[in-house]
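Hi everyone, sorry if this is the wrong subforum. Our group has a chain we'd like a structural model of before ordering constructs, and none of us has done structure prediction before. Sequence below.
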Amino acid sequence: MSTFDDLVAEAADAPVAGWDFSWLDGRATEQRPSWGYHRLVAERMARASAALDVQTGGGELLAGVPRRPPLTVATEGWPPNVARATRLLHPLGAVVVAAADTDPLPFGDDAFDLVVSRHPVAANWPEIARVLAPGGTYLSQEVGPASVFEVVEFFLGPQPEEVRANRSPDHAGRAAEAAGLEVVDLRLEELHTEFFDVGAVVYFLRKVVWMVPDFTVEKYLDRLRAMHDHIEREGSFTATTTRFLIEARAPRNP
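Answer:
Right subforum, don't worry. Here is the predicted structure as tokens:
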């Protein structure tokens, strides 16, 4: 059996570029929402003529779509992911554009009949509405409120209620409507994530950096030891994961 030091050192050295979590296979599990986001994206991509994947990460989801539109573009803001997505998507005919998450989308008005985004840092609703063609669709799966907060609060302590309430699907729905879009689907599900060793927790916090923004192994060594002891005693550490699906449509021309 691996020691605490071995598990932490292995996870601290693991590469975290892209949005591929296969390093966690056998070390952590996450329930998937019932709606099947990848399947929904694939269905809509097959019918689209021009599609945009916002904050594509390493391009993994887009690369897995069986049939992409003739014009397929992705944006990404983190340089290591831009390089990774470019290597993955360019051979498939998709263009990757470097654009910071907070920047305006670098495209003209009415450019796409489909815009998708999986787990965006934040949805820029006015920009999404601007680049959607009349009658076009935005489809996104987002991290919901207080997701994996059992892990967050294990390291940071109890969080204020306003922090726990961030990323509300109702807020997203109101923001979409304020941008002039019609919300046609909005669903929230509570799921579970289970970590089977402390290395999985280290890897997760290194990759999903906004959970514990100042995380380093050195700074949180005592809490990591406590996490290791909990997993050794209980067999795993379980957290509640929240996800919501939002689909919004641009109005058609009169």
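For your construct planning: Residues 221-234 form the longest helix (14 residues). The mean pLDDT is 96.
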